[in-house]
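Hi there, hope your week has been kind to you so far. Do you reckon you could talk me through the fold, stretch by stretch? Thanks so much in advance, here it is.
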Amino acid sequence: MAVLEGFEGSSAGGGARSAGTSDIDRLIELLAKLPGLGPRSARRAALHLLKRKEALLIPLGSALAAAAENVRQCSRCGNLDAVDPCGICTDPRRDESLICVVEDVADLWALERAGVFKGRFHVLGGTLSPLDGVGPEDLTIAALVTRARADHVREVILATNATVDGQTTAHYLTDRLEDCGVTVTRLAHGIPVGGELDYLDDGTLGAALKARRPF
């Protein structure tokens, strides 16, 4: 395909592109911005979609449009859902006395996949990182403290990643939650140092959550 060849040439050499980016080029450029996809993988994905237009490309476009229109951030926990509050926050079967604190929505989804936690969640939106200019005011820490002070909350589980920034954030949260009258626990060391929840298997996540200890 001439368009794909032209894209390869412009990506490799960084030269000027012809006026008017084609629809295929635009599709490849957007796919290349997804995690784990570079220009080469994006070209293969684009070609696969275009060859299966009716079965894949059109349904994918509709799903993306619907997600852009309907999916929003939960005002309570920070999860992503089509309703606010999200389905987890409004599920009466979940234990509202337990709050599991995670860095990102991907970590929340990882724990949900494992099916080992039946409490509520709180998404911080990242970790403390002075080098990157991320301070407490940039995360949802104040909202977490407010939730932890509620009468029905008895335990806050810190499920930040076992990275330097994750550990720093966990220590900071422990200090902030000290006067809230709740038990603060940390995931056990079943999670390897430097590991991230979204890349761990369900068994490791389940063992780490069940073996949590005071922090």
